[in-house]
Amino acid sequence: MQVLRTVFFLLVLGNLLLFAWGQGYLGATTAGGEAERLSAQIAPEKLRIAGKGAPPRKDSEPIPEACRSLAGLEPEAAGKLVELLAGRDGQLKLEQRPLDEPRSWWVHIPPLPNSAQADKKAAELSRLGIKDFYVVREGGPNQYAISLGLYKSEESANNYLNALLKKSVKSARIQARVAAGDKSVVEIRGTPQQLVKALADLPPEFSGVSRADCAAAKP
Predict the structure, then answer these.
(1) DSSP 8-state assignment for residue 65
(2) What is the pLDDT at residue 98?
(3) Interval 37-58 mean pLDDT
(4) pTM summary value
(5) 147 and 118 in one domain?
(6) Residues 198, 171 within the same domain
(7) The pairing of beta strand 66-73 with beta strand 173-190
(8) CATH code for position 200
(9) Is pLDDT of 36 > 60?
(10) Do residue 185 and residue 96 come from a single domain?
(11) How far apart are the first and last CA of the chain?
(12) Mean pLDDT of the chain
């Protein structure tokens, strides 16, 4: 009977020692389980491998939008181009509109601050022997400008501007007056990669079309 009691107490003692060792009461264990290693990692799903010397890319950064303009198309051809591009990439932003073209060129002195200044400049022009001009007195953005002539071609306007320079009129300028013409322009907006793919290998009927950035294409 005494032997059984001794064996029983030894088993209990052994279990207690095993439990204490497993809980680390007798010293830290040298290696934890898989679950312990995973719990020790800090947000492992957010880790990214970046190239040497390259900053990590921010997924939230938007890709800048680009815009290309194809101008000088007949309206029917412009419609075909819009249909073609929409079929290639439905995410492109496409716009077809009449092309604004210069219809005349205005030689003038830009608006002066007030009527008195405009009259003073007009008197100077008269002293220089220039007679064909008038002061714009109607309200609007060109009020108190001095009109020196309206020409149907840019070449004629430049010729007259040079003649004015020879008479010491240095403040004159040329302004193209535009209006919607018979041709059309198609503007395509999207990412740079989208535009490259959409405009690649266009049919021959569009090969001679003028291309430019949208801002640069506007007169």
Answers:
(1) P
(2) 86
(3) 58
(4) 0.46
(5) yes
(6) no
(7) antiparallel
(8) 3.30.70.1710
(9) no
(10) yes
(11) 113
(12) 81
Q: Which residues pair with 108 in a beta bridge?
A: 147, 173
Q: Provide the CA 186 distance to its chain's centre, in angstroms.
A: 17
Confirm if 174 and 157 have CB atoms less than 8 A apart.
yes
Q: Which two tokens stand for residue 7?
A: 């064996």
Whose tokens are 């929409």? That residue is: 86
Q: Which residues pair with 163 in a beta bridge?
A: none
Side chain identity at 165, as an amino acid letter? L
Q: Under a CB-based contact definition with an 8 Å cutoff, are residues 74 and 184 in contact? A: yes
> CA 120: distance to chain centroid?
45
CA angle (46 as vertex; 40, 29 as ends), nearest 5: 10
Query: To the nearest 5 percent, what fractions of the chain are helix, strand and coil?
Result: 40, 25, 35
In order, the DSSP letters of 154-166 are: HHHHHHHHHHHHH
Show the domain range for 94. Answer: 66-100+181-217
Q: Cα separation of 3 and 205, whole Å?
A: 107
Quick: pLDDT tens for 13-31: 667 666 666 665 665 555 5
Whether residues 150 and 205 fall in one domain: no
Quickly list H helices, 74-180: 75-88, 115-127, 154-166
